[in-house]
Structures are given as C-alpha cells and as structure tokens.
From TrEMBL:
Organism: Streptomyces afghaniensis 772
GO molecular function, one term: metal ion binding
Domain of life: Bacteria
Keyword Cytoplasm: no
Record domain GAF: where: 49-220
Endoplasmic reticulum is among the record's keywords: no
Location of the PPM-type phosphatase domain: 238-450
Gene3D superfamilies xref list: 3.30.450.40, PPM-type phosphatase domain
Alphabetical keyword list: ATP-binding, Hydrolase, Kinase, Magnesium, Manganese, Metal-binding, Nucleotide-binding, Phosphoprotein, Protein phosphatase, Transferase
Reaction(s) catalysed by this chain's protein: O-phospho-L-seryl-[protein] + H2O = L-seryl-[protein] + phosphate
Function field: Primarily acts as an independent SigF regulator that is sensitive to the osmosensory signal, mediating the cross talk of PknD with the SigF regulon. Possesses both phosphatase and kinase activities. The kinase domain functions as a classic anti-sigma factor-like kinase to phosphorylate the anti-anti-sigma factor domain at the canonical regulatory site, and the phosphatase domain antagonizes this activity.
Protein name: protein-serine/threonine phosphatase
Enzyme Commission identifier(s): 3.1.3.16
Length: 453
C-alpha cells in the first residue's frame, strides 16, 4: 500500500493458524487416548472377581469417554431362576458408573431384578450377534427404543439428559461375553469415529480380563461344589468314637485346594482318621483329591497297620501315574485300648487336647509325601486318656506369611480350648482364635475323641 507522501509503504502478513490449532488438539487427544489404553492394562483386571473387574472398567470409561457407563455379562447358567424366553439372551446387570445426580438411572435401567432378557432387534443384541459396536448420536425417541428393551424407558434417558449412546460388545476368544453401554449427556459432544475405535479397543482388552474372571469363578464354584460334596460328612466312625470336622475355602485370590479328611471304622472298636492335602489348587486338585480319598478307603478295608497302609497307598499312586503329590496323616483311635497310633507322609503333626485343657503337639516320624514312590513310613503310639481329643489339620490352619511353619504349629500349644461340650463348639473356638481375616489357604480340621461310657 503506497502512503500519501510516496516515500513509504505498509505491508501486512497474515498467518492462518486454525489448521495448526486443530492439529495440536488432535495430537493431544491422541496422546490422552493412548494413555487411557495404557492405563487399562494396569487398572482393569487386577483381580479374578467379575464384579470388581467390571467396576474397574466403567470407572476407567467415565468421565474420560462417557458420562455414564454400564456393563452387562451374558448369563449362561440359570440356577434359581427360570430360563429366558426362546430367542432371548439373558444379561446380568453387573456394574455401572454415573455422575452425581444420575445414579438413579443406573438403578432403573433394564427394570427391576439382577437380569435383563434381550430380544432380537434391539441394538444391544445386534452388537452381541454381529460382534460390532453400535452408535446412536443425538438420538430420537425411535432410536432410543432400539437401545432399551422397554420402550417406556426412553423417558428415563430423556429425563437424565442423555442424547447419544455407544454400545460395544465384549468379545473374548471369539465369543461374546457381555456388552458395554455408554451414554453422553448435556453439553458433551456426540460420539465420533475416534471414540468408537478407542472404546472398542478398551472393550477388547477388558473382555479378556472379564472372561478370565468368569472362567475362574466357574472353576472355583465347580471345585468347591465337588470338594464340599466329598467332604459333606466323613464316613460314620465306630460308635465308640465321636468326630467333628470343618472345611473352609481360602479367600477369593486363591483357588480351591485338595484338602480332604475322612473317618473310617475298622476292626473291633477302632476308627481310622485321615487328613490329607493334594498339592496344587483348582478343579484338577479337587478331582485328584477324590481319587486319593477313594483309593485310601479301599486300602483301609484291609485292616492293616497305618504305616503299611501309607506304604501301599504311595506305591499304588506311583504305579497309577497320578501326577500330584499329597501329604497324608493316618491315625487309628482305639477307645478300648485307650491308644492312638499314627503315621505321617510329610503331613503336619497332630495335636491332642488333654482333659485339663493342655494342648500337646505330637511329632511322628515324617515320611515322604504320597506319590514319590519312596515309601519307608513309621508309626508311633500314644496314650489317649478318657476325655482326650485328637486334632488333625491341614497347613492352612497354621500357615502365616513370614512365620516359620514349625513356630506356627508350636503356637497351637498356647491356645485355650473348651474340653467339655460338643466337638463342634471346640472347633469354632479354635477357628476364632486362629482366624485373622480370611485364611491364606484352604483349612481342613478333624477332631475325634472317645465317647464317654
């Protein structure tokens, strides 16, 4: 531009920066979403509990990617409830997250009860059947009705101010295990393509954790059911001996183990008491426990001495190729003779509660565990005065992290237990003394004493 005096001019330079600003914003958003995907690896699936895993997922998704989120898990077992109608798929309402003032929506979504039966034709079912996410932005009432099973529930979403939905399937090992429902409300932007990609990536990662938790829960329940069925009641002892037992599974972080106990009447007035622990945890350990228990019952019918029973037990387990070692303690109570004869295959020592309240740990010769094929078991006999109680147990009762097991066993001798009254009361008192929160391993206890004449 020429100025009036003709000797000078003015130049202007303009720089358009909107594209640069948009690029920087997109770059920041990409970094945030990568960080979110990275956080999912450490924040989702920290336990093998389904409820906890689903809560971790919705807490990660809100408010970063949605104003509300809810997870439904496909229910394949209908124990205690009628199955869904033909053509319907049952989802168990698991966990949800919403901002203050919107929690009521989570409580009312899907109707009353813990389940919702999903028919074909709704968006949730489409996601599960196709394995692809579904998105409904700035939804009309007609579109809302594709999300909910009950068209009347469209009013709930409107009342909460939700305007957009995104539903992502949870796919693990090629099979749907559940679904995530996300909503945006108020001033939040509708879901875009980047949202869809990020949420589906998070869903894929979370699905593996949820499926692992579900498989764990199923195996844990199966093993626990098998173990409880086998240990519901020990065999009826000789009428001259009274017996009480307890089995307590460990906390959630530990699988069911292979603990077992038994009481088997043998010749004359004698009763064979058994306490064993198959090494390992889970369903396979429970199955192995059932095999060992059955085999030992067969061997006990011979009426031979406890050391010879253990020797034959070890030999047959080795020959059969059962690949799990087990510790085992056998004790024969003979009320008529007033004695107890025991032998150990690597198991913790028994204890006796004397009539005066004193507790003594008995240290038998320790033989090798069952399944090693080494044999070489020895028995020992102690006097059992009238009113004396014999205690057999597995390591879960006394084992404490950071404490030597022998020290923990010796600590039994410092307990004060009732000597009169039912054996069940005595076991309850014992567990109360030793329980400090959940036990770290499964606990099995067997108490026996001669009946009073």
């Amino acid at each position: 531009m020429d100025l009036p005096d003709g000797d000078a001019c003015l130049c202007g330079i303009g720089v358009e920066i909107s594209n640069l600003r948009r690029y920087l914003d997109d770059l920041e958003t990409a970094h945030q979403r990568l960080a979110l995907l990275d956080a999912a690896a450490t924040r989702v699936g920290t336990t093998l509990d389904i409820e906890t895993t689903c809560q971790e997922l919705v807490d990660l998704l809100t408010p970063s990617l949605a104003d509300m989120a809810a997870v439904g898990i496909i229910e394949e077992e209908f124990t205690g409830a009628p199955p869904p109608p033909p053509g319907f798929l049952r989802l168990r309402k698991t966990r949800g997250s919403a901002p203050p003032g919107m929690e009521w929506l989570l409580r009312q979504m899907g109707g009353p009860g813990p389940y919702v039966d999903v028919p074909r034709g709704v968006a949730t079912r489409h996601c599960l059947d196709s394995g692809r996410p579904w998105r409904g932005n700035l939804a009309s009432d007609e579109l809302f009705q594709k999300v909910t099973v009950d068209p009347e529930r469209t009013k709930l979403f409107r009342a909460a101010g939700i305007h957009s939905f995104l539903i992502a399937p949870l796919i693990a090992r090629g099979r749907p295990v559940g679904v995530i429902l996300l909503g945006r409300a108020g001033a939040s932007q509708p879901f875009n393509d980047d949202d869809l990609v990020t949420i589906q990536a998070l869903a894929d990662r979370a699905a593996i954790s949820i499926d692992s938790a579900r498989r764990y829960s199923y195996e844990h329940a199966m093993a626990l059911e098998l173990q409880r069925a086998l240990l519901s009641e020990p065999s009826t002892p000789h009428p001259a001996v009274e017996v009480a037992a307890r089995y307590l599974p460990a906390g959630r972080s530990v699988l069911v183990g292979g603990d077992w106990y038994d009481s088997i009447p043998v010749t004359q007035s004698r009763t064979l008491l058994v306490m064993g622990d198959v090494m390992g945890h889970g369903f396979q350990a429970a199955v192995a426990m059932s095999q060992y228990r059955s085999l030992l019952r067969t061997l006990a019918a011979s009426g031979t001495s406890v050391d010879k029973i253990l020797g034959e037990f070890d030999r047959q387990v080795t020959q059969l190729g059962l690949d799990r070692l087990a510790t085992c303690l056998l004790a024969v109570m003979d009320p008529r003779a007033g004695t107890c004869t025991a032998a150990s295959a690597g198991h913790l020592p028994p204890a006796v509660l004397r009539p005066d309240g004193g507790i003594e740990v008995l240290w038998p010769p320790a033989g090798p565990p069952i399944g090693t094929g080494l044999g070489g078991y020895e028995s020992f006999t102690v006097r059992m005065d009238p009113g004396t109680t014999l205690l057999l147990y597995t390591d879960g009762l006394v084992e404490r992290r950071g404490t030597d097991i022998d020290v923990s066993v010796q600590a039994l001798q410092t307990l004060s237990l009732p000597t009169d009254g039912p054996l069940d009361d005595m076991l309850d008192t014992l567990l109360t003394h030793l329980a400090n929160g959940a036990f770290e391993d499964d606990v099995a206890i067997l108490a026996a004493r001669a009946r009073r004449p």
